Amino acid sequence: FKQKTAYEIYQCDWSSDVCSSDLVENAIDHGIDLKEDGRGKISIEGKEQKDDIYLIVSDNGNEAALLAARRHHRFISMAELNEAVIKVIAGPEKKSRVVIERERKLTAYHEAGHAIVIHDLPTQDPVHEITIIPRGMAGGMTISLPQEDVTFQTRQQLTERIAVCLGGRAAEQLALGDISTGAGNDLQKASAIARNMVTRYGMSEKVGNVVFDSGHDEVFIGRSMAQTKNYSEEVAALIDEEVKALVDGAYARCGEILTHRRRELDIVAEYLLRYENMDAKTFEQVFTDPAALQ
Q1: Which H, E and C letters describe 54-102, residue by residue?
Q2: Residues in the chain, pLDDT under 50
Q3: Does an H or E element contain 50, and which?
Q4: Cα 275 vs. chain centroid, distance in angstroms?
Q5: Distances in Å between the alpha carbon of 236 and those of 6, 80, 187, 278, 293?
């Protein structure tokens, strides 16, 4: 039996008394503006866990303090804060893991594909960091940071989110002429978003403004756990058709973006193979001053 637990998700209020206390003011580097630099939510491509994670001051603050102490720093810098966020969510870097060159190249193009697609889609949060250093079960990650907190998502945002999920797979196909199992979790996320759009949010013109998702699992003795369908096989076939159309359309859009941005895709992948990490400033240089990176 599967137990369902509801978890309350809290966002940081960086202007609160907690963040303005003497302890925080004395521990955090004075060059850091928590309101500006302490973003509330990040998104990670290539991570198996839920991709939207809200920061909790205590967990990430403690981890950042530990990192600063190990480096014999008097204050916690933005580098420690950023590294703490990623470490809490994705786990520590596994620099000792031996990765063969063929897989490093595949990971570099995969993550570069995510990043390029994010850059060219107007509703997506900007790229914060790209890495091909393994963490947990992930071979690499592309991390986005939002510019503002949002409560709802539009059809355009969700459609473009599907494209972001598929950017790595499309880059593998375009640059290497083959695809890998590394995109497995991306495909699951893309399919889940598309199915929710059709069955829960009424975002399919053919299916219409009808909810076909019961929203809960039912378990009976002698039966496997499955959602009870409250619609016919004909409707189920239409739902599958619409889900596939959304995913296929997003994948085609990825192909168009990456074909147009093939030069930038190669630059990002080559940079990752050389340095393993690329920050937001360097990533923007790919589009504004690519010669400086070559």
Answers
A1: ECCHHHHHHHHHHHHHHCCCCCECHHHHHHHHHHHHHCCECCCCCCCHH
A2: 1-23, 25-26, 40, 48-58, 224
A3: none
A4: 21
A5: 29, 49, 20, 43, 50
Q: Rounded distance, CA 143 to CA 293, Å? A: 20
Quote the CA–CA distance of 43 and 39 in Å, as a whole number.
11
Collapsed DSSP state (helix, strand, coil) of residue 26: helix
Residue in 123, 122, 233, 247 with CA at minimum distance from that of residue 197: 247
Catalytic residue among 45, 63, 83, 111: 111
CB contact at 8 A, 191 and 204:
no
Retrieve residue 245's tokens. 């159309």
CA 282 remoteness from chain centre: 19
pLDDT number for residue 109: 98
Beta carbons of 257 and 166 less than 8 angstroms apart? no
Element (H, E) at 277: strand 277-279
Say what the pTM is: 0.77
Question: Rounded to an integer, what distance in angstroms lies between the CA atom of residue 115 and that of residue 45?
Answer: 9
Active site residue 160: no
Contact 35, 148 (CB under 8 A): no
Output the pLDDT for position 51: 41
Please list, residue by residue across 222-259, b when 16 or more beta carbons sit within 10 angstroms of its beta carbon and e when fewer do: eeeeeeeeeeeeeeeebbeebbeebbeebbebbbebbe
- pLDDT score of 150: 81
| pLDDT value for 122 | 95
Mean pLDDT across the chain: 80
268 burial (CB, 10 Å; 0-12 / 13-18 / 19+) is: buried
**pLDDT number for residue 276:** 93
pLDDT for position 34:
54
Burial of 196 (0-12, 13-18, 19+ CB in 10 A): middle
- Distance (Å, rounded) from C-alpha 104 to C-alpha 124? 26
